[in-house]
Amino acid sequence: MTMLQTLTERLFDDGDRSDLDPFAVFEEWFALAQEAEPNDPHAMALASADASGMPDVRMVLLNARDSRGFCFFTNFESDKGRQLLANPQAAAVFHWKSLRRQIRLRGPVEVVSPSESDTYFASRHRGSQIASSASLQSRPLENRQTLIARVEALTADVTRPAHWAGFRIKPTMMEFWKDGEYRLHDRVRFTRDTLDAGWHNARLYP
Question: What is the pTM of this model?
Answer without folding.
Answer: 0.91
